[in-house]
Amino acid sequence: MASNPTTNPQYRDYDKIYLLGDSITERSFDQTRGFGSGAQLLHSYARRLDVLNRGFSGYNTAHALRILPEIIPSPDVYKIKLLVVFYGANDAVLPDQPQHVALDEYKQNLKKIIHHPLIQAHQPNIILIVPPPISEYATQESDALKGIKVVQRIAENTKLYADGALEVANELKIPTVNLWAEFMAFAGWNGDLSAPLPGSKKIARDTKLEELFCDGLHFNPAGYEILYRCLMKLIENQFPELLPESLPMVHPHFSIAPR
User: Fold this and answer.
1) Torsion sign across C-alpha atoms 173, 179, 180, 181
2) Is 144 helix (H, G, I), strand (E, B) or coil?
3) How many C-beta atoms surround the C-beta of residue 179 within 10 A?
4) d(CA 143, CA 146)
5) How far is residue 93's CA from residue 150's CA, in Å, rounded to a whole number?
6) Catalytic residue numbers?
7) Which residues does the UniProt record annotate as the domain SGNH hydrolase-type esterase (predicted)?
8) 188 burial level (CB within 10 Å; 0-12, 13-18, 19+)
């Protein structure tokens, strides 16, 4: 537990779980629709670790690399115990869109984020979340309501970026939440890669998959529940010492607290 020597020498900051990502991460603390995975993590780790929301709407991996020096402090301030990296939804927009990051660059950017000296200084445990599928029907309808007439995302391209994230995780041996596969399993996909993917407009609308989204891209509570469940299961399997019940309270229970 880091102290802050610039202020009160008795001050003790909490170590952190850092959620690094785009709007899907940013919205995970919004409970106006119901369950949010970030808000639930904050509740689960109360008094043990702080959970910081560093999700930025619209950002891709190139944006992330530019802002890392502004959002990752020295470990003298506090320690990042767990870093959750979740990018790809914006990188995977079609090449004529401003948020697009080419697939090879996306994979290299993920590696640069994970290996960044500011992050490595914390020696954190790291989890990579694979970007989820989309519903072309719902995303295009949502875009049309905003006056956007061009197609920004297609299901097949999103799959390429999900595969790219898996390649990086396998190469770097980083534990992974394969959210693409989890969402597809929820939709009942049979795994046939020779046929159009669920969510594609080449086939009928997949209403089961759309239960996970509010607009074909961002999550409904059901989508965030899958994310939270998978994340906690991975922590249990890979980092059991970081489960909430394995961590001491930073300040003790009132029954033994000093008075």
Assistant:
1) positive
2) helix
3) 25
4) 5
5) 11
6) 23, 215, 218
7) 19-226
8) exposed
Closest CA to 77 of 42, 50, 102: 50
Give the span between the Cα atoms of 54 and 40, in whole angstroms.
16
Nearest to 135 by CA among 74, 89, 78: 89
- Which class for 16: exposed (0-12), middle (13-18), buried (19 or more C-beta within 10 A)? buried
How far CA 14 is from CA of 28, 52, 81, 119, in Å, comes to 21, 11, 10, 17
| Exposure class string for 145-156: b at 16+ Cβ within 10 A, else e | eeeeeeebbbbe
Q: Which two tokens stand for residue 29?
A: 């603390």
Residue range 16-134+158-181+218-246 forms a domain whose CATH class is: alpha beta
Give the predicted TM-score (pTM) of the model. 0.94
CB 2 within 8 A of CB 75: yes
Q: Which residues pair with 50 in a beta bridge?
A: 16
Contact 88, 106 (CB under 8 A): yes
- Specify the DSSP element, H or E, that contains 106: helix 103-115
Q: State the Cα–Cα distance between residues 186 and 197, nearest whole angstrom.
A: 14
Which pLDDT does position 114 carry in this prediction?
A: 98
Q: Convert the pLDDT of each residue in 211-247 to its tens digit.
A: 999 999 999 999 999 999 999 999 999 999 999 999 9
The phi and psi torsions of 131 (rounded to 5 degrees) equal: -60, 145
Q: What are phi and psi of 46, to 5 degrees?
A: -55, 135
